[in-house]
Amino acid sequence: MGATGAFPLAAVRGLLCGAALASAAALHAEERPEYGGVLDVGTVYVTLSALSWDPVDWAWKSNHDYGMVREQLFAGDLDKSVRKGGHYPFVAEAYLPSDVLRGELAERWEWEDEGTLVVHLRPGARFTGKAGVMEARELTAEDVVYTFNLVNNSPKKAQQDYWGYIDRVEARDDRTVVFHFNEFNAEWPYRFGYGYQSSIVPREMADVDPKSWRNVVGTGPFLLDRYLHGNSHTYVRNPDYWDRERLAGESWPIPFVDAVKYRVIKDEATYLTAIRTGKIDILESIRWIAVDHLKETTPELLWSKWLSTSGNFVALRMDTPPFDDVRVRRALNLAVDQREIAELFYGGHAEVMAYPQHPGFGDYWQPLEEMPPSVRELFGYHPEKARALLDEAGVPEGFTFNVQVCTCSASNMDLIPLLDAYLAKVGVRMVIEPMEYASFLSMMTTLNHGPGYFMNNGHTNPTTSIRKFITGHKWNPALYSSERFDADIDTLMRTRDEAERVAMTRELTIRLLDEAPSIWLPTVYNYTAWWPWVKNYAGELRAGAVRPGPIYARLWIDRELKREMGFE
Fold it and tell me: What pTM was estimated for this model as a whole?
């Protein structure tokens, strides 16, 4: 199915899960969990250390790092995973369909009226004590209010009106939080329920340094025991954790493992060797090019295949000539042979036109074949028309422009010279500027990036994926700006009926693609590999926005099998 751009929904689910279905079938319903052991993981972000421990910083990766310790009001219901006979693979970066949403710190919730959401907190959820930070105590509604106000008042938030639809949040009593809306927002479960800035912290954080990893506390399944920048994060079991896992007809306290270690490994060859030699138990993101060799050298590994949850594109600054001319932006798209990239560069392990929407978004996603001709054209290879458009736009001799690219993506570092070669055929050249991640990100967030910016950006969820193109959004490196688009996004966010939102999202996506704020590029398949001694697992990656904590809490290590295989 590589490079087709067309996905029946049933096929999408199969592609997202891949071999995980076979792995799930191999799990015995009566298999009993085992306690103890250490789970070593090369996560999806194996090359990146924690970006921040402070919720005020609005770091996109925070839930990945402190989401093992801190919990949220909502999370994904892993009982509805494919592994357990459900329909959802739990690989999406930050999307949970409403039917797989469960309460985490929220025991239940209801709309009291159209503008009042009442959330009842779960009894038994406790903050762990930590010397110099706080005494152990129960979570209260005041902690939720404190967290909301803390993050909402941050000058670093993605957009200043992110929670503009909320007038105030109040604690009605110790167990009841009330959100007072001034208007409906379609993303409310994501934005303050399971999203990037939704982890609940205790009020005591106001009295300590929130940027220090030593002060990270929460109600979650693990405690942060040690952090070595550029090396590892170590989380140990919270013995007083409230949640349980139902297996073999019984309910079991979790987590099962004594500790989880995130390994931070910047070199691709090194982390591939680590999974091959059993130094890590799971490697969550493996480039297609390494898969055949690993399968040949290490046939014991189990696998899942999933379409990347990050889109690949070169953003073209629309406030900078000549990219303020749509003809130039379209010309650069027509000059790049996406299908050749998908078939040859990615070896067929990629799909054309799977961004900004993702095939895993169900009805929100529209296949390329259903798009209007002007959009379909952008995903074809038409160098002669590209030259004609450049002539028409007044740049017949071509031009040169600077493009920043992050060295953290080995694939993009390999791909960008190929893009330059395609553009050179129509008289356009790139000046490639490799940058390490912190500098690369800072260039964009401070609007100091060049006219070209080659990045991966998450699909997030169906509405956020296109909402990122509103005027002034933090993750809008093309500086796309349209009053009509902004107004329509505002209407979309206020629409309660999901069928209407689907139709509106499709129309806005077509409009965005057509205006070509970026050179759209194929979306690649990734692979997850793990050793058979990792139990209760089938390749799930996230149970909320970039948050694997609830997944790792439910895994166990079959240490006898590990010994039999010669690794312990």
Answer: 0.87
